[in-house]
Specification:
Structural class: mainly alpha
Number of helices: 10
CATH class: Mainly Alpha
Radius of gyration: 19 Å
CATH superfamily: Tetracycline Repressor, domain 2
Order of helices and strands: HHHHHHHHHH
Mean pLDDT: 92
CATH architecture: Orthogonal Bundle
């Protein structure tokens, strides 16, 4: 369907080249269609950006669910999710969240609540899973650990311009978060994954 094709191509271009720098002309030219065709489905660029961000959230949710269904242990699961983010945003030069906040604050505000829900649910489930597996300490203050980790990740994404720097800092944050919660068994598992870096 043309609408989906436009949305998929626009999303790919926005992530790779930046929300601000990609124009409706660029998308039309890349697809070999007229700009009028794009406007038939999306009344303006802001609407297209909103839909693109929703599509990325949907893909992230589906991929996280798929990774969770693989039954990795809690630490392995976090590294797999980090790997997934790395793959998804590999072509991006600058951090998508940083760009949205800077150039499209209204879209950014709208995207934020979805992002918070997805992250907090995922982090909480992971911590509970890790406690049950003996990888994280019992009696952790789960809600606060979720908040701590989310604050770290959120600040990295919001304030770091280059995507490769975001990736490196997120891996450090993941190590920091895991060490804060891990049992001895968890530390051994963590060290195993740190020897196999997410490239």
């Amino acid at each position: 369907m043309m609408k989906d094709q436009i949305l998929n191509k626009a999303t790919e271009m926005f992530l790779k080249l930046g929300f601000k720098s990609v124009t409706m002309d660029d998308i039309a030219s890349e697809m070999g269609i007229s700009k009028k065709t794009i406007y038939k489905y999306f009344s303006n660029k802001d609407v297209l950006i909103v839909k693109s961000v929703e599509l990325v959230h949907k893909e992230i949710r589906e991929t996280i669910d798929k990774i969770i269904s693989e039954n990795f242990n809690a630490i392995e699961e976090n590294f797999e999710i980090k790997r997934m983010f790395r793959e998804m945003f590999r072509s991006a030069e600058s951090s998508p969240i940083y760009q949205l906040k800077k150039h499209y604050p209204k879209v950014y505000e709208k995207a934020l609540s979805t992002q918070i829900d997805v992250c907090e649910t995922c982090f909480k489930q992971n911590i509970i899973k890790g406690i049950n597996e003996g990888l994280y300490r019992e009696n952790l203050d789960v809600d606060n650990y979720v908040k701590f980790y989310y604050s770290l990740i959120f600040n990295i994404n919001e304030n770091t311009m280059l995507e490769k720097d975001v990736h490196e800092l997120e891996v450090k944050a993941l190590e920091y978060h895991t060490r804060a919660m891990a049992t001895l068994t968890g530390i051994i598992e963590l060290e195993k994954h740190l020897k196999n870096p997410i490239i």
